[in-house]
Amino acid sequence: MPETRGIFSYLTARENLEIARRPGSRWPMESMLERFPKLREVLDRKGRFLSGGEQQMLAIARALLTGPELLLLDEPSQGLAPMVVETVMGTIRELKRERVSMLLVEQNAEMALSLADRVYVIDHGTIVFAGTPAELRASHQVTATYLGVGG
Predict the structure, then answer these.
(1) Which site in 18, 107, 115, 118 is 20 to 30 Å from 92, CA atoms measured?
(2) Contact 147/141 with Cβ under 8 angstroms?
């Protein structure tokens, strides 16, 4: 799921979902509408008329309908209202409980750390830290230098 959400603005939410659906996907369309009840309300609305949160839910649902082995999420909280961020992050937590493999790129460090099993801090294309969230929190130099926390 790209940072820009990548939905088709001139297609309806339903059409965006239908073109992503793959045979044998772990998640049928109905399960996406149950997971994101707000999408059911906007199925006939064109992508360009959806709110940022609705677009983000649509992007995640669309990605899941493709039946990925690994879900790539680039900045899923970017540009969203705090309440919508909680909804999106709640969905990501549910997917983690369902044992969906994910690679999350997220600048909100605390949010990312609350979800992660493994953490990589990258600076200008170089991995400067690799470990668990607890190990990162214990590395005061890394958190101060790269996350602007502590010291």
Answers:
(1) 18
(2) no
